[in-house]
Amino acid sequence: MTVPAPAHPRDLRRLVAAGEWTAPTAGVLDDYQQANLLVVPSAAADDFAEYCRRNPDVCPLLARTDPGNPELTYDNCTVDIRTMLPRYRVWQHDTLVAEPTDLIAYWRDDAVAFALGCSHTFDAPLRRAGIPVSHAPPPVYVTDRATLPAGVFAGPLAVSMRPVPTSLVDTAIEVTGRYPTGHGVPIHVGDPAALGITDLTRPEFGSYPGVPAGSTPVFWACGVTPQMAIPAAHLDYAITHLAGHMLVFDTLLDAVTPSVRTSR
């Protein structure tokens, strides 16, 4: 049975919490703020907050929770982190152990959740500017560029790629620059080898959509990046979103420019 597309983020979150929506969120409620997730033990939370501060284009911090509190608030929208993303990834002692549809069995008393801006946020504005953007999750690549380390967190930059008609690349840069909570302007335009990507047809996450004739690959920082820093952090546990399966807030990006908020 096909679930009808939700009309509002609260409808999507209701479906997700009920286990009726486990699919990616790309192309769904495009005009609303989407977010990546990272959950870490409270002992590592300040290190990760500093990692975000040092890498703001990669990790645009929207909100964080208090230790043990699964409720996170951003722009007056409060969500239960344990049940309102379609799929998660759970890490224990540097090893991926599960990709569940909720975190009820995995939440801990010292868990601190971070919501980070996502590039799905600017897909609809790109389409309105005449740039064709797939409704499927974009391919994600791990580059040879390092992020700035902070405490226990360090690792390579991950990027998402969207093919853009070459004549509209400047437009894509201008449009996405208006959305810092969606990673802002591209990290790189053109030859993927400049990022250490040797085979564009083989992303680490997602599927390669092709680059049509007359188009140029354009790369934006990606919220998968923190997942690349987990193994080296040697945490007892960590939790992230599954790539493409985002948290969707109630904020309309073109209606308001919210400030960073926390649940505190």
Structure report:
By secondary structure, this protein is α+β, with helices and mostly antiparallel strands. It has two domains: 9-120 and 230-252, PSTPO5379-like; 122-221, PSTPO5379-like fold (2-Layer Sandwich), CATH 3.30.2040.10. The protein is 17% helix and 28% strand. It has five helices and 13 strands. The chain has helices at 9-17, 42-54, 123-128, 169-176, 225-233; strands at 32-41, 61-64, 71-74, 77-80, 88-92, 95-98, 111-117, 140-146, 156-165, 188-189, 215-221, 237-241, 247-252. Strands 1, 2, 5, 6, 7, 12 and 13 form a seven-stranded antiparallel β-sheet that branches. Strand 5 (88-92) and strand 6 (95-98) form a beta hairpin. The chain is globular, with a radius of gyration of 17 Å.
Write the layout of secondary structure elements.
Blueprint: H1 9-17, E1 32-41, H2 42-54, E2 61-64, E3 71-74, E4 77-80, E5 88-92, E6 95-98, E7 111-117, H3 123-128, E8 140-146, E9 156-165, H4 169-176, E10 188-189, E11 215-221, H5 225-233, E12 237-241, E13 247-252
Antiparallel strand pairs: 1-7, 1-12, 1-13, 2-7, 3-4, 5-6, 5-12, 8-9, 9-11, 10-11
User: Which architecture of the largest domain would the CATH scheme give at its second level?
Assistant: 3-Layer(aba) Sandwich
How many distinct helices?
Answer: 5
- Topology-level CATH name of the largest domain: PSTPO5379-like
Report low-confidence residues grouped into runs of 5 or more: 256-264
- Please indicate the count of domains: 2
| Helical percentage | 10-25%
Tell the overall outline. globular
Biggest sheet descriptor: 7 strands, antiparallel
- SS class: alpha+beta
What is the level 1 CATH name of the largest domain?
Alpha Beta
Distance from first to last alpha carbon: 40 Å
- What's the SSE pattern? HEHEEEEEEHEEHEEHEE
C-alpha Rg (nearest Å): 17 Å
Percent in strands? 25-35%
The CATH superfamily of the largest domain turns out to be PSTPO5379-like
The residue-averaged pLDDT reads 91
State the total count of DSSP E strands: 13
Organism: Rhodococcus opacus (Nocardia opaca)
Family: Belongs to the D-glutamate cyclase family.
Protein name: Hydro-lyase
Keywords: Lyase, Plasmid
